[in-house]
Amino acid sequence: MSFKIREIQPEDNQQIAALIRKVLVEMGVPKVGTAYEDKSLDDMYSTYQHDKMQYFVVEENGTLIGGSGIAPLVGLEAEVSELQKMYFLPEARGRGIGAHMMETCLHFAKAQGFKQCYLETLPYMENARRLYGRSGFRSLEKPMGDTGHYNCTMWMIKDL
Description:
This protein is of the alpha+beta class. The chain contains 4 helices and 7 strands. The protein has helices at residues 13-26, 44-47, 97-111, 126-134, and strands at residues 3-7, 54-60, 63-72, 80-88, 116-121, 138-140, 154-159. The chain has a 7-stranded mixed sheet with strand order 1-2-3-4-5-7-6, with helices on both faces. The two termini are 27 Å apart.
């Protein structure tokens, strides 16, 4: 493997924020009611330096090409984790990196004692939805918790 999945470091902040915003624009995601406007994007390292939280980045040849995080789901913190901000640049897609990242995140969530993992996505993010389905996530009819991402209209959950 030419890529490495590792925990985010302070020096990754600027690069991962730019990466996430670039992918969101590429995908045509609304800038309001989605991760695009999250204040946490500009300091992801500090955001994830709390109990039961971690953000992982994918590095290849010294450059970040993707990332994803796990955190307690706001409103259901005791038992439900949330897969957050999973985005990959085009050069990372179709190479199995998403599956490796998913395994890393779900392993972390389970090790933290969570019973389930929740995520929110958009209908046109078809490749991401296929990855989620292959990873054992199932669709929900309504959102859970309080993410603030009211423009995300598809919700999924997986038992850990």
